[in-house]
Amino acid sequence: MSARGEALLWTAQRASAAVLALCVAVHLATMIYAVHAGLGAAEILSRTRGNALWLGFYALFLLAVAVHAPLGLRAVLGEWLGWRGRSRDAALAAFALALAWLGARAILGVFL
Amino acid sequence: MKAALRARNHPAYWAFLVHRVSGILLVLYLPAHFWVLGLALHQAARLDAFLRWTDQPLARFGEWGLVLLLAAHLAGGLRLLALEFLPWRDWQKALAAAAAALALVVGLAFALAL
Q: Most buried residue, A81, A98, B64, B65, by most Cβ within 10 Å?
């Protein structure tokens, strides 16, 4: 990849990290509250169904994760397994799409 | 080998290793996490059965481990952002300690809530 492309990915990784810092803090606080209040399907769904604020928050969270996780994995694959080049980036792009699809399904599953 | 290990035995290296390993484990966990939540779309009964299964102590311990991993990765990430974007380069050990403390606090809070 070109130096410009690498710089763009570096920026995307830091920008998504900054979004995630906020999202993960909220997610952790919600989890601690949720397990205390009871963690059954009914309890979860009563909090999430039809809640637009919740939907917006988790859509942003998912977007940041779908950028951040594959880019993190990219560094690990390159540095620890020596897998670089187009095949790695194509595999990671597919992984990012799969994560986004699975995540969107999960969000819609508990919202609708 | 011994020299290489000694060269790596400092807080910044351990902070790097924890950040990387927690990141890898979270990446492996994410698809499963999303898949289970996706069950709510068409198979609410299966989701409920799975959530009931997670009530057992070993699953609870696993959940606690995941929360700790997430907290550790968050804390390690904040440390990295601070190192890269703030003029705190002399504070490496303090940052690593703060990251470890944050992860521990979240882990304890979750364990107490369980």
A: B64
